[in-house]
């Protein structure tokens, strides 16, 4: 079901018919039990509908037999490719690695847990091919598998982020989407190391639309995100796409300075009219603690931005590749790096 689109004329996307390639990018970590079921679901959904497709797994430092499962899957089906990173660099870096190595004319990032139904890809492709959209994102029509707290905090984050950021992101839209090659090329040119992919997906613009889908429960395993990781993820998003946390302290400081000036006038007036009085200990400590806390909080906000400047200034690679299914065996242990 189509949601909304940006302005512009929709039309049949030109292409060589069955000659185009679809790449599905799947970051995984400790997901050995989910690999075979995911691939079977993709085959069931795409075979007979899309002539050429590939699945590119990014093994983000798994400690179980995920890499062994990927090697076996690649040996059984040449449409399955994989990259194995040297350690766990995080999902955003793994997803960036997948986008950089995907070869398709259209690229679909998705999770291996089948909460992103592969059947929805066919509707993505239809809107891309027939309606001419450069990006088609999935919108979770239901989130019954999430707790009430998680649904509430997610809704608050989307509203808060879109009020503060110059680049809004769609509500209840995750990484699951189809992107034309031109969109992926634009994202691959973005140099930042602290990456909030939902924001980066929205930043290039282009013609976009959304598709509702029912999000089922996870098939196997458990989510790798906890509330602490989600909090840091949200913090990265706000700091990466908005300077309001810095600007608000300028306004706050101006308001406090005005109040302080008015209070000074009040104190001077009382002394002139009624003589001097001795201020109380409680009011003095309250003022000291309040302003001290505000100063520490503002320094902490400033530190978030300075810390990210420090990370960007070092220009370390986003990830290191330990093994690539497309590389000869003799060179797999070399450990290639990527910017």
Automatic annotation (TrEMBL):
Principal location class: membrane
InterPro entries the record matches: Glyco_trans_2-like, Glycosyltransferase_2, Nucleotide-diphossugar_trans
Domain Glycosyltransferase 2-like residues, every copy: 23-184
E.C. number(s) listed in UniProt: 2.4.-.-
Record has Transmembrane helix as a keyword: yes
Origin: domain of life: Bacteria
Topology versus the membrane: Multi-pass membrane protein
GO molecular-function term, one example from the UniProt record: glycosyltransferase activity
Protein name: Glycosyltransferase family 2 protein
Matching PANTHER family: PROPHAGE BACTOPRENOL GLUCOSYL TRANSFERASE HOMOLOG (PTHR48090:SF1), UNDECAPRENYL-PHOSPHATE 4-DEOXY-4-FORMAMIDO-L-ARABINOSE TRANSFERASE-RELATED (PTHR48090)
Subcellular location: Membrane
Transmembrane segments: 248-269, 281-306
Keyword vocabulary terms for this entry: Glycosyltransferase, Membrane, Transferase, Transmembrane, Transmembrane helix
């Amino acid at each position: 079901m189509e949601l909304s689109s940006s302005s512009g004329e929709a039309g049949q996307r030109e292409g060589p018919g069955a000659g185009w390639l679809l790449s599905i990018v799947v970051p995984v970590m400790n997901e050995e039990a989910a690999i075979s079921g995911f691939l079977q679901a993709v085959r069931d959904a795409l075979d007979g509908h899309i002539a050429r497709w590939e699945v590119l797994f990014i093994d983000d430092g798994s400690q179980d037999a995920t890499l062994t499962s990927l090697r076996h899957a690649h040996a059984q089906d040449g449409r399955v490719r994989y990259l194995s990173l040297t350690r766990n660099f995080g999902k955003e870096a793994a997803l960036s690695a997948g986008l950089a190595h995907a070869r398709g004319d259209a690229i679909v990032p998705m999770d291996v847990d089948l909460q992103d139904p592969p059947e929805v890809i066919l509707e993505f492709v239809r809107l891309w091919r027939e309606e001419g959209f450069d990006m088609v994102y999935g919108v979770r029509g239901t989130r019954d598998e999430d707790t009430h707290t998680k649904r509430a905090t997610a809704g608050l984050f989307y509203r808060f982020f879109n009020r503060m950021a110059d680049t809004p992101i769609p509500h209840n839209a995750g990484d699951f989407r189809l992107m034309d090659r031109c969109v992926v090329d634009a994202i691959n040119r973005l140099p930042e190391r602290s990456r909030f992919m939902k924001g980066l997906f929205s930043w290039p613009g282009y013609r976009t639309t959304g598709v509702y889908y029912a999000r089922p429960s996870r098939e196997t395993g458990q989510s790798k995100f906890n509330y602490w990781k989600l909090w840091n993820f949200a913090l990265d998003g706000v700091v990466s796409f908005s300077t309001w946390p810095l600007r608000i302290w300028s306004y706050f400081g101006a308001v406090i300075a005005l109040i302080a000036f008015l209070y000074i006038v009040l104190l001077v007036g009382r002394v002139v009219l009624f003589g001097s009085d001795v201020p109380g200990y409680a009011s003095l400590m309250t003022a000291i603690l309040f302003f001290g806390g505000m100063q520490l909080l503002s320094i902490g906000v400033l530190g978030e931005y300075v810390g990210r400047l420090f990370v960007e200034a070092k220009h370390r690679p986003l990830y290191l590749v330990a093994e690539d299914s497309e590389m000869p065996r003799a060179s797999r242990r070399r450990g290639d790096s990527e910017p």
